[in-house]
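WP5 quarterly update. Target: M48 family metallopeptidase. Source organism: Aquimarina algiphila. Length: 410 aa.
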Amino acid sequence: MTPYYLFYLLIAIIVIVFLIDSLLDILNARHYNNEIPKELLDVYPEEEYEKSIAYKKANYKFKLVSSTVSLIIMLLFFFLDGFAWVDTISRSISNNSIIIGLLFFGIIMIGSDILSTPAVYYKIFVIEEKFGFNKTTIKTFFIDKIKSMIMMIVVGGGLLALIIWFYELTGRSFWIYAWTLVSIFTLAMNMFYAKLIVPIFNKQTPLEPGELRDTIEAYSKKVGFQLKDIFVIDGSKRSTKANAYFSGFGSEKRITLYDTLIKDLNNEEIVAVLAHEVGHYKKRHVIVNLLLSIALTGLTLWFLSLFIANPLLSEALGVATPSFHIGLIAFGILYSPISEITGLIMNVVSRAFEYQADDYAKNTYNNEALISSLKKLSKNNLSNLTPHPAMVFIHYSHPTLSQRIKNLRK
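Structure tokens (predicted):
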């Protein structure tokens, strides 16, 4: 294959992925006004349901426009030799391959962030604001962006520098060392994310003594779940949407409740949600997901090692000097169809795990309390009750509300 044909193969992959995603969005939008399943008739009052449809339509139109603009910008970058231009700038600053790679991705990431900021701003301060979800201030919005950028530079830059260093030292065998590094990092993030990362953006406080904590601890004792830490996070600082999650394992495991969840649900419903999260732990879903993630990372890095040294990748993007960073860009696009397939498989596994966690909550606590909590959360988040089956199959990591309720009541 010549660089010319590889270039247009990359373009074709980008466009095809865009068209498939857009087709799914269009199919999904056509289901917005479908008849509500009978088990969900009590989720929305009529006025609220109309509001949920309006919210879905607003997000659909926004995504269609923003993704089209992103595609146009990306294609222009390709056809105007943008990668070669950034590579030239990076090489004019340093001769060190690691620094060149860091500068290259730094320029692209910063440029991408600047270009995407207006769309993100509109999503939060226009759409989310209009439908009553947004609690983020403009100050918080920009502080979050600065913090995220610093983390990307420190953490992402550090990992990338080490991976390029491994490549310079070991050649195609670099993937083994990179896989080890990323696996250790992934394990550390699973263990300490709530302690190290969350506090940068949110305040976490231990759940105060009282009826809710007593009920949670009584349930944990009943099912043999050793729970040391129950935290409340100030999710209302940014949104009215509610959530709860389980993080860590071993001595570092903890349950975190959004303050909005405590506000929206009664104690029995909150414990039912936590019973679902405990189910994930008891069924070892956390460990399985971690191992699957590490395995997929290894597979991706191995594939990368087969192609990264090929100068054709750099030539296809108009760059005369082959390099790890240019090869990584081209490979990322070539690998995207495989990534879509592995993502689909992970979603199938995730949906199966959600059913198992629901079953655990049903068998150890109260299925109707979990159903009630799911309905309330769907209503408060203006969730889509009638998604297209293709959208569910390809992109949903959770079963639909209707599917979960049918499973919980069978």
